[in-house]
Amino acid sequence: MSEERRAVRRQVLQVAAELLEKGGSEAVSTRAVAAAAGVTAPALYRMFGDKDGLLAELAAYGFEMYLTEKREALALTHDDPVADLYRGWDLHVDFGVQHPAFYMLMYGTVQPGRRPPAADEAHALLVALLRRAAEVGRLRVPVAGATRIIHAATTGVTLTLIGEEPSQRDLTTSARLRDTVIASVITDPPASSGSDLASHALALDAALETALADGPGAAGAAVPLRATETALLREWLQLLGG
After folding, report:
1. Which of 33, 95, 147, 176 is most enclosed, with most CB atoms within 10 A?
2. pLDDT tens for residues 98-138?
3. SS3 assignment for the chain
């Protein structure tokens, strides 16, 4: 795709995003977007196919907005994965409340197997935060389970707040749920005596996962185990951590 066509596509998405923010998905008709962007309807169809294709692109556009805000904010925090979990929760909920139409498109119309790459990156950010927490002995459940719990809770509370009248919206609901949910997956810093077996087991499991992800040319060289042995060890560690 040429730079000129990419620029036109981006302009159309920006116009569609404005219509979405003002009137919700119902306002994003192909006719309205084409008129507002100054392109013909056939040109719009060539770019996105139909309205469903346009909305799918807008969902991806929303995830890009979300990730830009989240990356910048988390980059400013101190090196404390637990503090970043709290901050990440608040950023997620705040994005949804500030951009309800986008959030509904991103999380309220999810279908199995149909998720834009930016959504995978958003998911990976949460996994990375929880893995960091595990590596310093602060996680009381395996990373995969903690990820599902926090994702379900943040999505649920955000959709609940979006569905309320702004005048009746109580953001302390999110804060209370945040504190309860994060406390259910996070443990106190491990004692210097090393007596907290579960957190140490999960820390080693997270370190193994990171080493394997880095590959044999990096930290993965420090795992002198065959694949079957590593899988068995990780299964044992997760049992100890559970």
Report:
1. 33
2. 999 999 988 877 667 666 677 888 888 899 889 989 888 89
3. CCHHHHHHHHHHHHHHHHHHHHHCHHHCCHHHHHHHHCCCHHHHHHHHCCHHHHHHHHHHHHHHHHHHHHHHHHHCCCCCHHHHHHHHHHHHHHHHHHCHHHHHHHHCCCECCECCHHHHHHHHHHHHHHHHHHHCCCECCCHHHHHHHHHHHHHHHHHHHHCCCHHHCCCHHHHHHHHHHHHHHECCCCCCCCCCHHHHHHHHHHHHHHHHHHCCCCHHHHCCCCHHHHHHHHHHHHHHHC
pTM score, two decimals? 0.74
Task: Report yes or no: 100 and 164 within 8 Å, Cβ to Cβ.
Answer: no
The C-alpha angle 232, 236, 241, rounded to 5 degrees, equals 145
What crossing angle do the helices spanning 100-107 and 143-162 adopt, rounded to 10°?
140
**pLDDT tens digit string along 185-229?**
998 876 544 446 676 777 777 777 777 766 654 444 466 677 777
Per CATH, the homologous superfamily of domain 1-49 is Homeodomain-like (1.10.10.60)
Ordered by start, the domain boundaries in the chain are 1-49
CA angle 174, 150, 116 (to 5 degrees): 105
